[in-house]
Write a structure and sequence with these properties.
The protein is of the alpha+beta class. It folds into 4 domains: 2-160, Rossmann fold (3-Layer(aba) Sandwich), CATH 3.40.50; 193-212 and 493-609, Topoisomerase I, domain 2; 219-283 and 423-487, Topoisomerase I, domain 3; 291-410, Topoisomerase I, domain 4. The chain has 20 helices and 17 strands. The strands form 4 sheets. A 7-stranded mixed beta sheet has the order 2-3-4-1-7-8-9, with helices on both faces. A 6-stranded antiparallel β-barrel has the order 10-11-14-13-12-15. It has a two-stranded antiparallel sheet with strand order 5-6. Helix 3 crosses helix 5 and helix 5 (160-188) runs antiparallel to helix 19.
Length: 637
């Protein structure tokens, strides 16, 4: 028997359909030609809790929930890493174990990335699989893609580097999280969780909140002039000359007297067109949505939380109305072009508000979203070819968001005239710019794009305007000037959507140039599947809380961020991890070298922590649960 082990049930069903289904069971699908397909539910094995590795003489907690946390037992460094079965996965793993005992050949059908490789391989190792193992490599579940991958199986041993990189990351995260959480909790007298992703995320919010609270607004002045030629007039903004007196470090005019003097000179003097550009330009269709895109957009439009959006997309995925939700990809594989007509019909049958948009869509248009080289383990979130009923308003909003972005791919590029005018007036430079819509194109479909186009920069005082046709050298008259007082503004507070985006683009918050480059080339901190959960956990701990659409740090959260070592509260550790994992994947480093380096770091941190005094605010409410998997007890073997 050839046994196919998929990462998730949806992939298993797609593979089974390609192989030819003969019968179904609760835990597997029997197919023609002696093929059997079964599935996982993500990682079904997890690393044992620290208690397992502690000696038997470590006393139990009074509440019986595991062994006492003591500084003298740290660091806990497993000599042999032990896995346990997740409770919710026990029945499925029991079936996989049984099927493995009868398999002559196994196909690893994990997602085509590091975690997908490890997810199945660790099961094969746990149950001492002796069969030959092949690798199924596919990032889509459409029929064409799946059939191609089924016909092109590879040798699973070609991917041991990816497996080892994922395993190294899991072990290193365990070492940091389990040891430093226990150490910080013992040292502070209250639960302070530490993690490679969680701690920098907390610190992002804390630093943003502090920047807002410590912000001191500074006044500056914007100078505008209205110029006329014939019967046409337009408003232009003064552009300070670099190095002129009266500017701040950001090039803003902070001398009001100088601004008024310039205004008087401009009004009394001569003006002429120094430059005129008028060009027809196109705005290309936006890419499809990743989970981060969807969380950010839904947060801005409706104030939805990150986990709220994930749960809604998951529900729509389970209804087979949207594709797989936990994706960081914005592209689609070209094989799915064969399903465009079916997907458009499904959109019309599911969202009444988009029926007219579907009618006007041109399914022959091909945009940059179709790119096989840029589709990762999963493609972008798009509607499927299945129509159905949308239950709640939230489901309608989220489905429509994905459908609008998909529909935009079948509308032409938006067109507009872009006009820029440069004026010299009494030796001073002014500029004006304006856009004149010509064809709405895809922007007629995407409400968020239309809203964005209507936005104006309130700080600058500039508004969208239609500019007249002019010629370089043409004389102008100044009919009016205005000096407007403005104030610098603090950064905006994070929403869950913008915090997700910050986690994804964490490179911009790294100080070290090397770390910044590594992080820029990577996927940020966390993954599309875990970021919402990290934010939710920080709220559960009482470190973060929501205020309207905003998410802010609490007194406890700030104290925790201040107490946690900079090594763990900045994104630099993720850069170190990514560099080491790449080297492991390429075979130039071993897992043990990586683990040993993290053990050295933890020992240094524990030594430094032993000399610190940590004071935390009094606990106002009991956290809803301890750290993940805190209470499992085990006997050391």
């Amino acid at each position: 028997m050839r046994l196919w082990i998929a990462e998730k049930p949806s992939v298993a069903r797609a593979i089974a359909n390609a192989l030819g289904i003969t019968s179904r069971d609760a835990n597997c699908i029997t197919c023609s030609n002696n093929n059997t397909v079964t599935w996982c539910f993500g990682h079904m094995l997890e690393l044992e809790s620290p208690d397992y590795y502690l000696s038997d003489d470590v006393p139990e907690k009074k509440n019986g929930n595991g062994k006492l946390w003591r500084m003298q037992d740290l660091p806990i460094v497993p000599a042999v890493w032990k896995h346990v079965v997740k409770k919710e996965a026990a029945a499925q793993l029991k079936m996989i174990k049984k099927l493995l005992s009868s398999a002559d050949e196994v196909v690893n059908c994990g997602d085509p990335d590091r975690e997908g490789q490890l997810l199945v391989d660790e099961i094969l190792e746990e149950y001492h699989c002796k069969a030959k193992v092949k690798r199924y490599w596919c990032n889509a579940v459409d029929d064409i893609s799946v059939r191609r991958a089924v016909a092109d199986l590879r040798d699973n041993s070609d991917y041991t580097g990816m497996r080892d990189a994922a395993r190294a990351r899991a072990c290193a995260d365990w070492l940091v999280g389990m040891n430093m959480t226990r150490a910080m909790t013992v040292a502070s007298g209250r639960l302070v969780t530490v993690g490679r992703v969680q701690s920098p995320t907390l610190n992002l919010v804390v630093e943003r909140d502090k920047a807002i609270e410590n912000f001191q607004p500074s006044p500056y002045f914007n100078l505008f002039a209205v110029f006329s030629s014939g019967g046409s007039s337009f408003r232009a903004k003064f552009v300070p000359e670099e190095g002129m007196a009266g500017l701040d470090a950001e090039g803003r005019l902070i001398d009001e007297a100088a601004a008024k003097n310039i205004a008087d000179a401009v009004k009394a003097g001569k003006a002429a067109v120094a430059g005129y550009e008028h060009a027809l330009k196109k705005s290309a269709q936006p890419l499809a949505l990743s989970l981060s895109d969807m969380q950010s957009e839904a947060s801005a439009r409706w104030g939805y939380g990150a986990e709220e959006v994930l749960n809604t997309v998951q529900a729509l995925y389970e209804k087979k109305l949207l594709s797989y939700p936990r994706t960081d990809c914005r592209y689609l594989p070209t094989v799915q072009q064969a399903d465009i007509g079916k997907v458009l019909s499904a959109i019309a049958g599911t969202a009444d508000s988009l029926k007219d948009a579907v009618k006007d869509a041109d399914s022959s248009i091909r945009t940059a979203v179709w790119n096989d080289s840029k589709t990762t383990a999963h493609h972008a979130i798009v509607p499927t070819s299945t129509s159905g009923t949308l239950g709640s308003e939230k489901e309608r909003n989220i489905y429509t968001l994905a459908a609008e972005r998909y529909l935009a791919q079948f509308y032409p590029a938006a067109e507009y005239y872009d006009t820029k005018i440069t004026v010299t007036a009494s030796g001073n430079k002014f500029t004006a710019s304006g856009k004149t819509p010509v064809k709405a194109g895809w922007q007629a479909v995407t409400k968020s794009a239309a809203a964005k186009n209507r936005e104006k920069d309130d700080d600058s005082g500039e508004e969208s305007q239609t500019l007249p046709e002019l010629m370089e050298g043409q004389s102008l008259t100044c009919s009016n000037t205005e000096v407007k007082t403005a104030k610098t503004k603090p950064p905006k507070r994070f929403t869950e959507g913008t915090l997700i985006r910050a986690m994804e683009n964490i490179a911009q918050y790294a100080d070290d140039p090397t770390s910044k480059k590594i992080l820029k080339d990577g996927d940020g901190i966390g993954t599309s599947a875990t970021r919402a959960g990290i934010i939710s956990e920080l709220k559960t701990r009482g470190f973060l809380e929501t205020q309207g659409k905003n998410i802010v740090s609490t007194e406890v959260g700030r104290a925790a961020a201040a107490a946690i070592s900079p090594r763990f509260r900045t994104p630099a550790l993720t850069a170190v991890f990514e560099k080491m994992m790449t080297e492991i994947e390429q075979g130039t480093k071993t897992i043990q070298i990586f683990i040993d380096s993290q053990v050295r770091v933890i020992r240094q941190e524990l030594d430094e922590l032993s000399r610190k005094k940590i004071t935390m605010p009094a606990e106002k409410r009991k956290p809803a649960g301890a750290m993940r998997r805190p209470g499992r007890t085990g006997k050391r073997k």
